Amino acid sequence: MRHLYKTQVRELARYLGVPETILNKPSSGDLGAGLPNEVAIGLSYEQLDAILAGLEQGLPEGTISSQAGVSRKAIHAVQRAMRAASAREGMPGHL
After folding, report:
1. What are phi and psi for residue 43, nearest 5 degrees?
2. Sign of the CA dihedral 17, 20, 23, 28?
3. What CA–CA distance (Å, rounded) separates 57 from 26?
4. How far apart are CA 3 and CA 64, in angstroms?
5. Three-state SS annotation for 40-63
6. Cα 77 to Cα 10: distance, rounded to the nearest angstrom
7. Angle between the 72-89 and 61-68 helix axes, to the nearest 10 degrees?
């Protein structure tokens, strides 16, 4: 399910009848100092998913910014994170 956005996974889980207690549980703190991921990222998953979808569709930054309700600075931060993740994927798993 790597091709689905977090909001889509939650929507699918809701459709499948996953209990609300699980759906509403904060994501694990694997990104920063044990904080929930949305806190570490500084964006809600709805905002992050809207940015990612806009970038994937090649939308202009101004359109993404207004649709996602975020600043261009936030979009640039997501783009930097994507480049860093891409660079890490190209590195060998061990030396």
Report:
1. -140, 150
2. negative
3. 28
4. 20
5. HHCCCHHHHHHHHHHHHCCCCHHH
6. 24
7. 110
Taking CB atoms within 8 Å and a gap of at least 24, the contacts of 67-73 are 70/43
Q: If you ran DSSP here, which 8-state letter would residue 44 be given?
A: -
pLDDT at 85: 74
pLDDT, one tens digit per residue, over 6-42 is 889 999 999 999 999 988 887 765 555 566 767 777 8
- pLDDT reported for residue 87: 75
Which residues share a beta bridge with 35?
32
Instruction: Give the per-residue pLDDT at 13.
Output: 94
